[in-house]
What we know:
The complex is a heterodimer of chains A (578) and B (162).
Chain A: E1 2-6, E2 9-13, H1 19-25, E3 36-38, E4 43-45, E5 54-57, E6 64-65, E7 75-78, H2 82-97, H3 113-120, E8 144-146, H4 156-164, E9 170-173, E10 180-183, H5 199-203, E11 209-211, H6 215-222, E12 228-233, H7 254-264, E13 268-271, H8 272-291, E14 299-300, H9 305-314, H10 328-343, E15 351-357, H11 361-365, E16 372-373, E17 376-377, E18 381-384, H12 385-394, H13 416-419, H14 426-440, E19 458-465, E20 468-476, H15 478-489, E21 497-501, H16 521-536, H17 546-556, H18 562-568
Parallel strand pairs in A: 1-7, 12-13, 12-15, 14-21, 15-18, 20-21
Antiparallel strand pairs in A: 1-2, 3-4, 5-6, 5-7, 8-11, 9-10, 16-17, 19-20
Chain B: H1 8-20, H2 28-39, H3 44-54, H4 58-67, E1 79-84, H5 87-91, H6 94-105, E2 118-123, E3 135-137, E4 140-142, H7 149-161
Parallel strand pairs in B: 1-2
Antiparallel strand pairs in B: 1-3, 3-4
Helix pairs in contact in B: 1-2, 2-3, 3-4
The complex binds iron/sulfur cluster (2 copies) and FE2/S2 (inorganic) cluster (2 copies).
Keywords (chain B): 2Fe-2S, Iron, Iron-sulfur, Metal-binding
Protein name (chain B): NADH-quinone oxidoreductase subunit E
Binding site for [2Fe-2S] cluster (chain B): 84, 89, 125, 129
Amino acid sequence: xxxxxxxxxxxxxxxxxxxxxxxxxxxxxxxxxxxxxxxxxxxxxxxxxxxxxxxxxxxxxxxxxxxxxxxxxxxxxxxxxxxxxxxxxxxxxxxxxxxxxxxxxxxxxxxxxxxxxxxxxxxxxxxxxxxxxxxxxxxxxxxxxxxxxxxxxxxxxxxxxxxxxxxxxxxxxxxxxxxxxxxxxxxxxxxxxxxxxxxxxxxxxxxxxxxxxxxxxxxxxxxxxxxxxxxxxxxxxxxxxxxxxxxxxxxxxxxxxxxxxxxxxxxxxxxxxxxxxxxxxxxxxxxxxxxxxxxxxxxxxxxxxxxxxxxxxxxxxxxxxxxxxxxxxxxxxxxxxxxxxxxxxxxxxxxxxxxxxxxxxxxxxxxxxxxxxxxxxxxxxxxxxxxxxxxxxxxxxxxxxxxxxxxxxxxxxxxxxxxxxxxxxxxxxxxxxxxxxxxxxxxxxxxxxxxxxxxxxxxxxxxxxxxxxxxxxxxxxxxxxxxxxxxxxxxxxxxxxxxxxxxxxxxxxxxxxxxxxxxxxxxxxxxxxxxxxxxxxxxxxxxxxxxxxxxxxxxxxxxxxxxxxxxxxxxxxxxxxx
Amino acid sequence: xxxxxxxxxxxxxxxxxxxxxxxxxxxxxxxxxxxxxxxxxxxxxxxxxxxxxxxxxxxxxxxxxxxxxxxxxxxxxxxxxxxxxxxxxxxxxxxxxxxxxxxxxxxxxxxxxxxxxxxxxxxxxxxxxxxxxxxxxxxxxxxxxxxxxxxxxxxxxxxxxx
Lengths: 578, 162
Ligand code: SF4
Ligand code: SF4
Ligand code: FES
Ligand code: FES
């Protein structure tokens, strides 16, 4: 421990503590911008590039950046001297001098760290008139939107993408005033190995990185009387949406969410959870087939389009091991435009499927050519939790006062196994519940597999099924997935089944969720909420979902059969590393 | 192996060089030097090849290439023409000289002529304002250049090649 003084407060801090962290212990606030510490997922952005956190250290001529300066014995720090306050304000003014000032119409209005800082430091005028850089904007992927004009060079995205996701899309390019964070050769994002996980979007302090928005398209469809617009909602959004309206992270707002969708004009409000149950019966069947020697082990889950694109670029030699199951919302799209359309006698050409997702990658996924049949696309639009909240506001709905309503039938029915799809470990747990019963022919007493739960980047478990020891691996975050896959490829580790989700923590921390602003306790609260929801469900095994059983009986036939394959399965494509 | 749209013999030469390195970590800059020596410039596919060969991200390689002014992604001609665009030269009509050279060679600034003979760049004041406007070819200085002189200067180098 070392002794330091901050603003006349004496305190003891462990070795290696930064001034910023020490100040926090003393309840002293120092503004920051580029700094970001997500210790739960081992990401710290240490670029110290913005200098918004400058403080005075006695005996030093220059001001020190609090986020990057470690305390030493006897250090005396002053955060609120005239010089420090002025310097911090100047730094923000300089940033603003090369920043567009279109806050009023900016995507991040109200959610921007730079805007918040300008308010916090009381900036009323930008004294520096500088040349403003203009760069090409990029929406080539239809998923991720890059506007480098709003980049403040904090390089959080670069740290996230390189160190956590190991995709290495961004680098500082060019020098001096021209410097910008950009992909290799300034390529359009769609031509890179970007997986569109959107984790860079989650940590970007400004609107330099956001999602490509489809709100206007969805409104257009809703106001078109020729169209039959239906919604499906991902498991992870119902425990996060409330945050956009001042509720607590993890508050379950399923009923209000359904009510809101109805009031926005959706003809039917369905649940992706229904399709998650379908995914499980298909995947469990495929798993059992592979256990019986039909195909290679391990089987990898394929619910996450970001992770799918990752394996296509990074491990093209392993493309025979992911399950061929489509992701749940894609299954839903296919089911809606066939089974549902036929059953209710609706022209599939008129049906518009809107997926409300915690995810940006799914905006990319729906455009893949495997999911187009003639001019029919399985899913028409994907909007994020954030975009959905925007629509609720635009419609003037008082969200917290809405009544709780139920999903429509038949594609609104689901089990507890489906709702945990939103969290890391949830898909494999759901699959185990079904596979266990199908293999043993016995009913599973305790359906909770605690070893595969929680936010840890990698988890494993061994489950006894009959006389077999089934080895399970679970990875979340693409860096963790990469390590695991390298070992699988090199034959260093063996598992029977592996679940991978691209986002650290799973979809509850997806790139389209309400911004966490660096506080991952929010994600933990969402996680717990999903498991609570599972517990509250009368049915907790996918194969017991009566609506699913009925659909197979009426329409699809055999699980894993020919029609199932046509509607519910897909294939993968080798892609280059770039 | 993915296809690279560059001279294969040169690519093999680069590969041999990279394979000969005992330590590939931190080798990026020397490898880029070597590659530019071999190819004369660093086209996208050469950078991609280097990235994959060294096991680093393409974006990182591109970041380094664009950071150092020594590296170029444009092919260079046998003879490099530099035109000073400093204030003195500009006032004396350097822009017209540049236009004339581009017309004569049928190229854009920063590019190489189709025959591979010349490439054209501009510079800021080279410290010879008394001679404005100034044109340099491979470091040789031509002062008080007039538009009519351009063809003669270029011919000097064309003749040399026969
Ligand atoms: S979306 Fe994901 S993979 Fe793509 S640049 Fe951002 S962090 Fe990297
Ligand atoms: S983990 Fe979930 S939110 Fe993240 S990219 Fe995958 S599917 Fe989307
Ligand atoms: S927050 Fe400390 S330098 Fe940016
Ligand atoms: S301006 Fe051309 S040499 Fe100085």
